[in-house]
Design a protein that fits this description.
The protein is an alpha/beta fold and 244 residues long. It has a single domain, classed as Amidase signature (AS) domain (Amidase signature (AS) enzymes, Alpha-Beta Complex). It has nine helices and five strands, in the order αβαβααααβααββα. It has a five-stranded mixed sheet, with helices on one face. β4 and β5 form a beta hairpin. α1 packs antiparallel against α9, α2 packs across α9 and α3 packs across α6. It is globular and about 50 Å long. 29% of the residues are buried.
């Protein structure tokens, strides 16, 4: 899929639907923001494969070549948001869905739930209230950062795509997957949009790309930056899944 395809799908999904309690009347195109991007290769010291770093620097160069100002900086935290996100996920899941998972008894689902419980002890009421309070503070910090840098370039994952079912092989493999995808797990806490953009393939024919993060309701800015990155690379081509 191209960024144009994503834009079309986003505009369709953004249409009003009163069955969606979280829908807001925000236009899909707001006033243009400054062409200024932050680049963070390894947020909070997370391990990043060389191919992922290469993709990030390549994407940053494509933006710079198109007139964007790109600055390599430290971004606000992901680790604390990831833990708080898990706390809130599990607080709700324990009440409403844990029994259904046990009843269904799917081995992989049970394993994932057990690992999440291991990583995230059950909070008391004060723990949940503290998590909600910190969410407000962290959201404020991120909004201030994204006011200065309307786009953040960071990893989608610290590693290239995993083998299928790696995360359910063992507790250690689950922890590895969670750490590699820190930038995905932490982001939803603040309600910020993200966009993954392909930059090409590695020498081993493995797809690689970057994640763009923007301010609330600024999907338009992410799509504009994504189109620049996409245009600087190899055109999207059909894929034959059977070709390996």
């Amino acid at each position: 899929r191209t960024i144009g395809d994503v834009r079309l799908a986003f505009e369709a999904m953004a249409a009003q639907d009163l069955r969606d309690p979280w829908w807001v009347p925000v236009p899909t195109n707001l006033p243009e923001q400054p062409k200024r991007a932050a680049l963070t290769i390894a947020p909070e010291g997370m391990k990043v494969d060389a191919a992922v770093e290469t993709a990030l620097r390549d994407a940053a160069k494509r933006l710079a070549d198109a007139g964007w100002q790109v600055e390599e900086v430290e971004c606000p935290p992901f680790r604390e948001p990831a833990m708080l996100q898990a706390t809130l996920w599990l607080a709700e899941f324990r009440r409403g869905a844990a029994e259904a998972v046990r009843k269904e008894a799917d081995p992989d689902a049970l394993f994932v739930y057990e690992q999440m419980v291991r990583l995230c002890p059950e909070p008391d009421m004060n723990g949940i209230l503290d998590a909600l309070q910190r969410r407000a503070t962290l959201t404020r910090d991120w909004q201030m950062f994204l006011d200065r840098y309307p786009v953040l370039l960071c990893p989608v994952s610290g590693e290239l795509p995993f083998p299928d079912l790696l995360d359910v092989e063992s507790p250690e493999a689950f922890d590895r997957a969670m750490e590699a995808q820190l930038t995905q797990v932490g982001l939803p806490l603040m309600g910020l949009p993200g966009l993954t953009v392909s930059t090409g393939m590695t020498e081993g024919n493995i797809p690689v790309g970057v994640q763009l993060i923007g301010g609330r309701y600024r999907e338009d800015t992410l799509l504009a930056a994504g189109e620049v990155i996409e245009a600087g690379g190899v055109p999207a081509l059909p894929v034959d899944p059977a070709a390996g």
